[in-house]
Amino acid sequence: MRRRSVGLLMAAALVAPTTAAVPAEAHGSTKRVVGYYTNWSGYGRNFLVSDLVKNGSAARLTQINYAFGFVDAQGNCLSSDPWADYQRPFTAEQSVNGKADEPGQVLNGNLNQLKQLKQKYPKLRISISLGGWTGSAHFSDAALTPASRTAHVKSCLDLWLKGNLPGLPAGAAKGIFTGIDLDWEWPASEGNPGNVIRPEDKQNFTALVHEYRKQLDRLPGRHDLTAFLPANPAMIDRGFEVRQLFKDLTFGTTQGYDYHGPWETLTNQQSAIDGPAGDPTTPEFSSQVTIDAYLARGAPRSKLVMGVPFYSHGWTGVTDVNHGLFQPSTGPAPSTFDAGTEDYRYLKAQLANYTVYRDNRAGFAWLFDGTTFWTWDDPVEMKRKAQYISHRDLGGAMIWSLDGDTGNGELISALHRNLR
After folding, report:
1. What pLDDT does residue 101 have?
2. Would residue 48 be called left, alpha or beta, if left means φ above 0 and alpha means ψ between -120 and 50 degrees?
3. Rounded to the nearest 10 degrees, how much is the dihedral formed by the CA atoms of 314, 43, 127, 135?
4. Which reaction is catalysed here (predicted)?
């Protein structure tokens, strides 16, 4: 499961091939480094919370967004996977603290592992992320009226922040989450087929965010409120009152990927900093376009966190012209989990089969072997993105998703040490 939304809803100056890498040592940063950890990471990918310690990610992150909690048809919050979230036992080898979960203990699963992670890294903030591509069907209903908003927020804070999980003693998971991350995909715009959408979602989302802020502020301590925001300027205008939203948000994360993908037949970039020369598609979609759109609509630079991908999109049956860029294909490239999408760590293992190409002006890279084309965000491109974030004095970087990195954390290392 990956985010797929910009390319579904919106429609180069080449340099010599290179396989240059960036060293993996860490460096200090004053910027936010936010990473999504998903509750399905521990299944086929076998990427556990403890792997965030082993590959150095936890030491470099300022915040983890745990994805995803869902919203039901009545507007209440619920766990999308109770087994992964709080029931699965972990062995000593799998756990953060090196101790096996014991039979009969109150809290298991990823939440207990996140609790251990916070004990090891007390400055780390952890938010529960609500919605996502497959979990946003009922946000519009939850946000519809003052009463529905009040009830929805109360339900979510009770479940996730107060830790009152079904079947467990009251407060069993209290204190694990220090905030809420809203991933409504998307207010007033169709996301996953079947989502409820209304024209008034725009105003209702602002009101929902404000209700979250009010109820969070009544809780003891400091609590974060963040939102994942779309890249498409037309979707921004349709669903988001940017200036008002950022008054209540701790920060907002922008979609810095999925500008193009294998839902289109033509190969293209998915996360370019600027629009590449020769792109036959219109309008232009790039990080520059997205960041400029939010700044122009009143988002504070310090609260604008730019998304970066730890995965690639791919096409096969690609015409061998222009090193595969902007060429027709026969369909998505075969991959480990989802056709046309591959985690960085799995694609890197196949790197010997490809040539790396970079567009240094537009700021993106890709792989091509004569028939299969992959977008490519490696340490070189992470450094480039970090330097762009720093140059524009933005609030930091957000990663989708942490399970895509290598065992030595080379992507997050390159990103982190180049943020200033």
Report:
1. 98
2. beta
3. 70
4. Random endo-hydrolysis of N-acetyl-beta-D-glucosaminide (1->4)-beta-linkages in chitin and chitodextrins
pLDDT value of residue 29: 56
Nearest C-alpha neighbor of 31 from the set 347, 304, 332: 304
pLDDT, tens digit (0-9, with 9 covering 90-100), for 263-310: 999 999 999 999 999 999 999 999 999 999 999 999 999 999 999 999
Question: Under 8 Å CB-to-CB from 218, ≥6 apart: which residues?
Answer: none
Active-site residue 185, yes or no? yes
The residue count of the chain comes to: 420
Q: What are phi and psi of 184, to 5 degrees?
A: -75, 110
CB burial readout 225-245, b (16+ within 10 A) else e: bbbbbbbbbebbebbbbbebb
Residue with tokens 């780390």: 124
Task: Give residue limits of the domains in the chain.
Answer: 6-417
**pLDDT tens-place string over residues 154-193:** 999 999 999 999 999 999 999 999 999 999 999 999 999 9
pTM of the predicted model as reported, rounded to 2 decimal places: 0.94
Position 320 confidence tier, pLDDT thresholds 50, 70, 90: very high
Rounded distance, CA 68 to CA 304, Å? Answer: 22
Catalytic option among 25, 93, 102, 185: 185
- The CATH architecture to which 6-417 belongs is Alpha-Beta Barrel (3.20)
Return the H-helix or E-strand segment holding 68.
strand 63-71
Mean pLDDT across the stretch 74-92? 98
Amino acid letter, 244 = Q
